[in-house]
Design goal:
- This protein has 156 residues and is α+β, with helices and mostly antiparallel strands.
- It has a single domain, classed as Yope Regulator, Chain: A.
- The chain is 48% helix and 14% strand.
- The protein has a 4-stranded antiparallel beta sheet with strand order 1-2-3-4.
- The longest helix is centred in the last third of the chain and has 46 residues.
- The chain is elongated and about 75 Å long.
- The relative contact order is 0.15.
- It binds zinc ion (ZN).
- Zinc ion binds next to helix 2.
Length: 156
């Protein structure tokens, strides 16, 4: 089991009126423009945490072996974000997969536990997920080639 970020680091988040977003409590870790939400960076093992007053972005570095894994991760992020809104769909320069914790989530013990679990699961299981994606693809590749060759040979 790898390093886990503790709940305590998120508890201090509180709502603020972001001046760059018309005074609503927009996550300043994403806005990155206003003075209130100035980003503080903390490095942990395989992670970069960007903290603001009302939100935190956690960027996780994963072991991405090749373009295939990069593609698989992009698809996984996109689909995951539909079901777990804290997972950021887009790419961030700071890491391979990014999770947003806002002040509302930080007040909810159960939600924080889920995020903690995700922060453990993703870096620890990624390689396994990537390998199984490759296996599925290899199977498709072999079957498809067999089918095409079979039909090719039948052509007269
Ligand atoms: Zn802001």
């Amino acid at each position: 089991m790898g390093e886990i970020i503790t709940l305590e680091e998120f508890r201090i988040l509180k709502p603020i009126e972001c001046p760059s977003r018309g005074g609503i409590n927009f996550p300043c870790a994403i806005c990155r423009e206003c003075e209130i939400g100035a980003v503080t960076q903390t490095f942990e093992e395989n992670m970069l945490i960007e903290s603001t007053v009302n939100s935190v972005l956690i960027h996780i570095n994963l072991d991405l072996g090749d373009e295939f894994e990069r593609f698989v991760l992009k698809r996984l992020k996109s689909e995951l974000s539909k079901n777990i809104p804290q997972v950021q769909k887009g790419d961030w320069d700071e890491g391979d997969i990014t999770i947003l914790v806002d002040d509302a989530l930080s007040q909810n013990e159960e939600s924080l536990k889920k995020i903690e679990w995700l922060l453990w699961y993703l870096p620890n299981k990624w390689k396994q997920l990537a390998i199984s994606a490759k296996q599925v693809f290899s199977k498709w590749e072999n079957q498809t080639v067999k089918q095409i060759v079979f039909q090719f040979e039948k052509v007269k």
